[in-house]
Design a protein that fits this description.
By secondary structure, the chain is mostly helical. The chain has seven helices and no strands. The chain has two domains: 4-77, 434 Repressor (Amino-terminal Domain); 83-115, no CATH class.
Length: 115
């Protein structure tokens, strides 16, 4: 049986926590104090070195005033720019050939015909 943990992208969750923390103007030290953990533990969460449990994620969500679903999935129901940042970051890491391939695959999935 496949582990559920394998389907959760802790790297993206950690990055979203880091981004939300920075946007709020919190240092790792300040957030770590608020959720009563060591700074090293929070750092590992942000770098996906350790998985985060829902209790901690909920605490972070409340403290940083970010919806829980946004930290987990990157979207909020009202969001129109679903995964824009993640796609942009991914594409920056790819060669031009891979970018073109991803673009063509996206067109196929979206049902857009080729010229």
């Amino acid at each position: 049986m496949e582990s559920v943990e394998a389907n959760i992208d802790f790297k993206l969750i950690g990055q979203r926590i880091k981004d939300a923390r920075a946007k709020k103007g919190y240092s790792q030290q300040k957030l770590a104090e608020q959720i009563d953990v060591a700074v090293a533990y929070l750092s590992r969460i942000e770098r996906a070195g350790t998985p985060i449990n829902l209790k901690r994620l909920g605490q972070i969500s409340l403290i940083l005033d970010v919806p829980l679903e946004e930290l987990i999935t990157g979207i909020v129901v009202e969001s129109e720019n679903y995964l824009d940042k993640e796609f942009s970051d991914l594409l920056k890491e790819c060669s031009k050939d891979k970018q073109k391939l991803i673009y063509n695959i996206a067109r196929i999935v979206a049902g857009v015909s080729f010229i």
